[in-house]
Design brief:
The complex is a heterodimer of chains A (431) and B (261). Chain A is built from 15 helices and 13 strands. Chain A has helices at 2-7, 45-48, 54-62, 69-83, 90-120, 126-132, 134-155, 175-200, 242-245, 270-277, 283-292, 304-324, 374-393, 399-411, 418-421; strands at 20-27, 30-38, 164-165, 168-169, 214-217, 228-231, 236-237, 246-249, 258-261, 341-349, 352-360, 366-372, 425-430. In chain A, a hairpin with a 4-residue loop joins strand 6 (228-231) and strand 7 (236-237). The longest helix of chain A is centred in the first third of the chain and has 31 residues, at 90-120. The radius of gyration of chain A is 21 Å and the shape is globular. Chain B has a 5-stranded parallel sheet. In chain B, helix 11 packs antiparallel against helix 12 (249-259). In chain B, 52% of the residues are buried. Classes of the chains: A alpha+beta (431), B alpha/beta (261). The interface between A and B is large, with 69 and 61 residues.
Amino acid sequence: MSKLQKDLTIPIIARVEGEGALHLKIHEGKISQLELSIYEPPRLFEKFLEGRAPNEVIDAVARICGICPVAYQMSAVQAMEHIFEMPVTPWVHEMRRLFYCGEWMESHALHIHMLAAPDFLRYPSVIAMAKDHPEIVKRGMHLHGLGLMLMTLLGKRSVHPVGACVGGFYAAPKISAVQEVLAQFKKSLPLAQELVLWSASLPMAKVTQEFTSVCLRHPHEYPMNEGRIVSDRGLDIDISEFDNYLKESQVPYSTALQCHLQGKSYLVGPLARLNLNHHLLPPAVHDILKEAKISFPTQNMFHSVIARSVEIYYAMLEAIRIMENYVYTPTPHSPMTPRAGVGFGCTEAPRGLLWHRYEFNDEGLVASSRIVPPTSQNQARIEEDLWHSLMAFGLDHSDDDLRFHSEMVIRNYDPCISCSTHFLQLKIDRT
Amino acid sequence: MEETKPRIAIHKFTSCDGCQLAFLHLGEDLLKLAEKVDIVHFVEMGPINPTAKVDVAYVEGSISTPEEAKRIREIRANSRYLVTIGACATAGGIQALRNFADTKSWMQAIYATPETISTLDTATAISNHVKVDYEIYGCPVNSQQVLASLLSLLQKVTPTARRDKVCLECKRLGYVCVMVAKGEPCMGPVTHTGCGALCPSLGRGCYACYGPAENINTDALTQWLSSLGLSDAEISRRFLFIQNSAPGFKEAGLKLKKKVP
C-alpha cells in the first residue's frame, strides 16, 4: 500500500470550481506577468476515495461537481469496469450516452444563457437580459430543462443522480417514461436549431489564434464515453498513456494544477471536440451549420459558444435516436466481481476531457486514485489566450474595460470557476 | 416600490456548487423569483455584493479555510436570517472526512508544494462558526425545500420541516422494502426524508445523503446490517460517507471504526 501512495506524488486537484483572480503586470505597455489563480479550497477527494468500495466511488465522485456529476460518474465507472474486466453491454452503452446527452444539454444551456450570453449582449446578468430578450432566455431555460429531464429519467435527480452503478444502471426506465420524454424532445427540436442560428449571429471578434485541440475520438461516434485521446497535431494515444504525454504541475498562485501536453498548453472542451470530430456529426447538424455559415475546424476561440449550441442540437438528435430505439430490460446491469488492478477512465465532460485512474486492492477497495478535470487542463491555455487577447485588445484601455474583456475571455472556456470569474478581482500594476 | 422588495443573497463556501443549482435549475420560476425578491449577491448568476445587508442569506458549503471562517462572520452580521443549504453547510459535507484523517499528509500526497495553499485541518458546518436560523438537509437540497423556506421566512414564520425517515416515505409511496424483500443494505431507517426515497424506487438501498432523521436508533440499524452480513468496516463506511460529521452518524461510524482491527 505504501508503495502505491508514492505514485501519488504527482500532484493533482480534484476539482476547481469556485473562486478565481487574475493578476496582471503591465510594464512599459507590455504584459510582463499574467497569473490566473484559482483559489477554490482543496477538498482532497483522491484521498478519501481510498478504502471505498466500487459503487461508493460512483456516489462519492458525483460530489466533485454539482453541474457535471454524470461526467465524474461515467469516467469512474469506465475505470472500474476496466479493472474488473467487465464488458459494456450494447444497452448500457446506449443508456450511458443518453445520460451524457442530458448533462451536455443541462451544462451547455446553463453556460450559454446564464454566463456567456450576458457577455456578448452586454448585460450584467441573465435576469437583466431577460427583461429585453425574454424569448431567448426562455428558450434557453426550456432546453436546459430538457437536459434535466433526461438526467432525471436515468438518474432520478439531476444533481448527484443515483441511477448509475458499476455494470450499468440500478433500474431500467419504463417504456412509458421514455416515451413521454421523447415526445417533449421531438416537439422542442426546432428550438435547438434556432439556438444554433442565434449563437452564430452573436457579435464576436474575428480573431484567430494558434492552439492545439485535444479530445477523445471514436471510429464512428461523436465522442462521449469512449475513444482514444487525439489532437490536431498528431497525438493519438490510448487513455492509459495519458501520463506519458500530459503532465500536471503546481503553480504557486493557484490551487488548480496546470496540465501541459509535451510542454505546451492545449484546449479541451466543445470547440476541441468539434474541431476534431465534425465529420462524425449527422447530416442534420451539417445542414444547420451551412445555414449558419459556420464551419469547423476553427481557431476562433469565441466560436466556443457556437460549439456548445451545436452540441445541444446534436445531443437532442442523439437522444431522440436512442429513445426511439429504446427497449426495456430486466437486467440493466451486469454482475460485478471486484479484483485488484489498475484501470483508467476517460470521458468527455461538458467542459472537456475528464481522466481518472484507480488502483484497487485484493479486498476490492480503492488503493489509490487520481482525477484530472478539464479545467486544470485548460488553465494554461486560458492564460495564453489572455496574453494574446489582451495584447490584441489594447492595454491602453481602462481597468474596467480590461477586466470586462478578461472576464469574457475566461468565461468562454466555461471553466468550473466561471461562477466566480464574474467576481474577477483584477489587479493591474502599471509601471 | 422596488426598494421594498425583500433582499436575498446566495453564498458559496467549500462545496460542489450543486445546492445553488436549487435556484439556477428553477427555469422560468427563477425569473418570477427575481420579480418578487432582490437577489443582491449570487456569484454564479451574476450579481456581486458580498457584504450587502439582506433579509435572507442562503449559505452553501463548509468552512475549510481561514478566509472562509472570517467571511461567514461578516455574512452573519449582515443577514437577518441565515439559512444553510446542503450537507456541506449543515454538517461539513463529504470533505469533512478529512476531520478523521491527517490533513497535512493528505495535502502532501496531492500537492507538490502544499505550503502555498491556505487550508484548515478541518471542514466544518456553518453552525460551528455562527448562529444558523434554519438548516436544510440533503446532498443536494431540492428547489421545493429552498423555496418553501424562503416563503415562510418572508412571512416571518419559522419554516417547518418533516424530520421523519426515508422508511416512512417508502411506505407512503408504496415501495416494497429493499432491505426486507431483497436483503439490500439500506440507511432509510435513520435517514432524513425529503429526497422522495429515490434510491429505493430503483431497488437500491438508501445511502443516507439527506443526513440523520429525528430520534434515530443507529445501534438497531447496525445490528440489522450486521445480520445481512456486512462487516463493521462496511457499516462504518455507510455512516461515515456524505453526512459523515452529522450528529448521530459520526458517533455510530466512529464507534464501529474503532472495532475494526
